[in-house]
Design goal:
Elements: H1 2-14, E1 21-30, E2 43-51, E3 56-60, E4 65-67, E5 73-75, E6 84-91, E7 95-102, E8 105-109, E9 120-126, E10 134-140, E11 147-154, E12 157-165, E13 167-168, E14 180-184, E15 187-194, E16 200-206, E17 209-216, H2 221-228
Antiparallel strand pairs: 1-2, 2-3, 4-6, 5-6, 6-7, 7-8, 9-10, 10-11, 11-12, 13-15, 14-15, 15-16, 16-17
Length: 232
């Protein structure tokens, strides 16, 4: 029994540690997609991930896709101590999807929106309801549907959790995404604007549902930044 236990421990210790991604960036600028939702005609055709060892991994999309995004986001979705990479990946004919990549490639993704020139704007990732799993929030078509969606990352997959209409975090032509996820004294909240861009909204995931409240009527970048600092 002891010998078997020691052998099992030796096999476990012999397993190579997972490569840790410490940074990521988009490369290979391209004009093959004519959407320009972020203010210019440039999207990206590749994702470069840098590992803790210094090694760089490069993932190149097919010519039918681009990364239609501001920057990749790193988050430890599976709580193993090493982050995954969250991106907006767009198919030229099917629109955008939210995708999660690791050092071995694609891990999980939401469905593509379904038609060209349809985009989504990420909000962030956090354990929004305290269940021990990380949720990812984004606004589906922030200029049209204005639909806040939350997906849970569990067992290497993305599962839909909840959605709420009438919220947005981006205006056409902006080179940034407004709001994010804040941590005040009483748990994480999603900060966005209302659909008319007239109010700052704080949204919580509770009991499998999204519930919003207004926290301000000034919607300037300074007002949103103040709300993100829990100072509304």
């Amino acid at each position: 029994m002891l010998r078997a236990a020691l052998l099992g421990l030796a096999v476990f210790l012999a397993q190579p540690a997972a490569a840790e991604i410490i940074s990521a960036r988009y490369t290979d600028p391209t004009t093959r997609y004519d959407h320009g939702i972020l203010g210019d005609a440039i999207e990206y055709g590749a994702l470069e991930m840098t590992l803790k060892s210094g090694r760089r991994l490069r993932l190149v999309l097919p010519d039918t896709r681009v990364f239609e995004d501001i920057a990749p986001r790193l988050a430890d979705l599976d709580h193993d101590g090493a982050p995954e990479v969250i991106v907006v990946e767009t198919d030229l004919s099917r629109g955008a999807r939210l995708a999660v990549y690791g050092e071995k490639g694609l891990i999980a993704a939401t469905p593509f929106i379904g038609r060209t020139h349809r985009w989504l704007a990420p909000v962030g990732a956090a354990d929004l309801d305290g269940d021990g799993f990380t949720e990812i929030a984004y606004v589906d078509r922030p200029h049209l549907a204005k639909l806040l969606k939350v997906w849970r990352f569990r067992n290497g997959r993305l599962e839909p959790v909840a959605q709420l209409q009438g919220l947005t975090n981006h205006q056409i032509g902006q080179d940034h995404i407004t709001g994010g996820i804040r941590e005040c004294s009483d748990g994480p909240e999603i900060i966005t604007l209302d659909g008319n861009w007239k109010r700052i909204m704080a949204t919580r995931l509770q009991g499998g549902r999204l519930k919003s409240r207004m926290i301000g009527t000034a919607t300037s970048p300074e007002a949103v930044a103040k709300a993100m600092r829990c100072q509304e």
